[in-house]
TrEMBL record:
It is found in: Endomembrane system. This is S-acyltransferase. Pfam families: DHHC. Its EC number is 2.3.1.225. Belongs to the DHHC palmitoyltransferase family. The DHHC domain is required for palmitoyltransferase activity. Residues 119-245 form the Palmitoyltransferase DHHC domain. PANTHER family: PALMITOYLTRANSFERASE ZDHHC16. It is a multi-pass membrane protein.
Length: 303
């Protein structure tokens, strides 16, 4: 019985590692949806409306400008998540302070060995290395990730300390873009059911219909996902930590303003782009994924 359970666990992790093979496929799928939407909105619907003398020329211009601006930010955020390392544990990393006890002094060799034995300092048996605070092992990537939130197949990467902001911006701009597409194609979608003589070929009509349905579905699903992550940011919690928390007094909850700054930084000029100012990277250790200040009024014994 024990042996079969071990085999089952091994098969599960084998499947997780196999998910890495979907990488190029999911990227192509995302680009395919973007291409389909671009054809339906720009080439097939609103670009022809720019012709001189048409009454809808001003509306077409406004839709096209907004569509391309949101698309540029969406793709910038998306590929920033894809190609940014989520945060890996530095070689031979050792804790400088005992986060669990709130101790600010460096650990002695004796204290370090005792805390490791008592599991106050976490150790990853798969990576054979120590795990910093808020670090978790990803079975898909096969490595430990700093402040890991989850592994996302859509971005073919883990979402962690160094790319979480980029992931949130990807959700934000995707929601705005899909909502814009849904609203701009809604009148044409209604024509499918109210007008028997719709202009256009069967292929263009099918493309418009499919683009509307896909973008409506994505906008509704991403809205729920976005709301969930906004609540996580305001409480300074990751998706994994939300399921693991056993106490209502979360040690890393510093208040909404400081929690927000630990993800987006303090420089407002960088809040809506997938980048950080050099000053924020220098003065906010949480953006590096290794050091996180604790809630000041939290009783050490409650940790």
């Amino acid at each position: 019985m024990h042996k079969s359970g071990a085999v089952m666990a091994w098969n599960v992790f084998k499947f997780c590692r196999a998910l890495r093979g979907l990488g190029s496929t999911t990227i192509l799928l995302v680009l395919g949806i973007v291409g389909l939407t671009y054809y339906a909105v720009v080439i097939n619907t609103y670009w022809p409306g720019l012709e001189a003398g048409r009454p809808e020329a001003l509306l077409s211009l406004a839709v096209l400008i907004l569509f391309h601006c949101l698309l540029a930010m969406l793709l910038w955020s998306y590929f920033s998540v894809v190609y940014t390392e989520p945060g890996i544990v530095p070689p031979n990393w050792r804790p400088k302070v005992d986060e669990e006890r709130g101790d600010t002094d460096p650990l002695t060799a004796t204290e370090f060995s005792a805390d490791l034995k008592n599991r106050r300092i976490r150790f990853c048996r798969k990576c054979n290395q120590l795990k910093p605070p808020r670090c978790h092992h990803c079975s898909v990537c096969g490595r430990c990730v700093l402040k890991m939130d989850h592994h996302c197949l859509w971005v073919v990467n883990c979402v962690g300390a160094l790319n979480y902001k980029y992931f949130l911006l990807f959700l934000f701009y995707t929601f705005l873009e899909t909502s814009l597409v849904t609203l701009s194609l809604l009148p044409h979608f209604i024509l499918f059911f109210t007008d028997d003589d719709i202009p256009g070929t069967l292929g263009t009509l099918a493309t418009t219909f499919l683009a509307f349905v896909l973008n409506l579905a994505f906008s509704l699903s991403i809205l729920g996902f976005l709301i969930m992550h906004v609540s996580l940011v305001t409480s300074n919690t990751t998706t994994i930590e939300a399921y693991e928390k056993t106490t209502p007094k979360w040690r890393y909850d510093l208040g909404r303003k400081r929690n927000f700054e630990q993800v987006f930084g303090t420089d407002k000029r960088y809040w809506f782009i997938p980048a950080y100012s050099e000053e924020d990277l220098r003065w906010i250790p949480a953006l590096q994924g290794l050091e996180y200040p604790l809630k000041p009024d939290l009783d050490v014994q409650e940790l």
